[in-house]
Amino acid sequence: MQIARVLGTIVSTQKEPSLTGVKFLLLQILDQEGQPLPKYEVAADSIGAGIDEWVLVSRGSAARQIPRGEQRPVDAAVIAIIDSINVSDRLIYSKRDQDR
What we know:
The chain is mainly β.
């Protein structure tokens, strides 16, 4: 899993039929300090993450372990919206602070 920030949504009207109804997000991967890396990812989202939220991303076969995901051709999935990250008693990120 990796930490990422939601940059936006991707809309596609023509797609593999098993992906009908699946929301896609454009994510920027973050490092352990919460700084953006020059890496981007497109991920399926079944939990309802929004723009600027920090999320956990699962890749590969683990991304297809969500309900109804076994038959979908996805390589990455948003599996959680992050509330906070603490490392060595230091707050790296808090969703509460972001909402202020």
